[in-house]
Specification:
Elements: H1 3-16, E1 19-29, E2 32-41, H2 53-70, H3 74-77, E3 78-83, H4 94-99, E4 104-113, E5 116-126, E6 130-135, E7 138-143, E8 147-152, H5 169-172
Parallel strand pairs: 2-3
Antiparallel strand pairs: 1-2, 4-5, 4-8, 5-6, 6-7
């Protein structure tokens, strides 16, 4: 299955349905081939609204008929799964780094950068070809082309020293979403105590 061939048309179709394709992956589970889509509401369309099961069903219903017409052989061999990006949301586009500036993320690169392949830092500035994060008080610029995986790391925020250089970004970018807002906590314990 050629994900590059599928990505752009699926992205367009989801946008027509009011959703953004956050990440697309093909996985094998036993004998089953699965095309997994992580979706979110189009940015700006419904601020701070979380993706619900109803959203996943609506996106699935909107995609199935279209997929059957556009890629008729796909669903004969592949199951379709649609999910929310979750708290540890994948960051796959420059726009994602802009949207979540000031939040903590984990990045794994394909190639070492100054001898390092794994990074955990606060998201700073992002351009069309790189993202700058603050890791342990040091600003590090990572080219987007060498990023293998990147995700938000909200569960580590309380344990990680607060940033010195990118702290101002939270006030500079008022549309940055608080991904923990409204999140349920374990046994009613406030987030900062978990």
């Amino acid at each position: 299955m050629d994900l590059q061939k599928l990505k752009a048309p699926i992205e367009k179709q989801l946008e027509l349905l009011g959703y953004e394709l956050v990440h697309l992956e093909s996985v094998k589970e036993g004998r089953d081939s699965i095309l997994r889509l992580y979706i979110d509401h189009l940015h700006g369309a419904t601020p701070k609204k979380k993706v619900t099961l109803d959203d996943c069903v609506a996106a699935n219903d909107g995609l199935v008929t279209w997929l059957d017409a556009t890629f008729p052989d796909l669903r004969e061999t592949t199951n379709l799964e649609i999910s929310s990006p979750g708290m540890e949301r994948p960051l796959t586009k420059t726009a994602h780094y802009h949207r979540f500036a000031g939040q903590l993320c984990r990045i794994q690169t394909k190639l070492p950068l100054n001898g390092q392949k794994r990074f955990k830092g606060w998201i700073g500035e992002a351009t069309h070809d790189s993202v700058t994060i603050e890791e342990d008080g040091v600003l590090k610029t990572i080219p987007l082309e060498i990023i293998q995986k990147s995700r938000l790391a909200p569960f580590d925020e309380a344990k990680t020293p607060q940033p010195k250089h990118v702290v101002a970004l939270r006030s500079e970018f008022p549309d940055v979403r608080d991904i923990n807002a409204g999140a349920e906590t374990s046994a009613g314990i406030p987030d900062q105590e978990i």
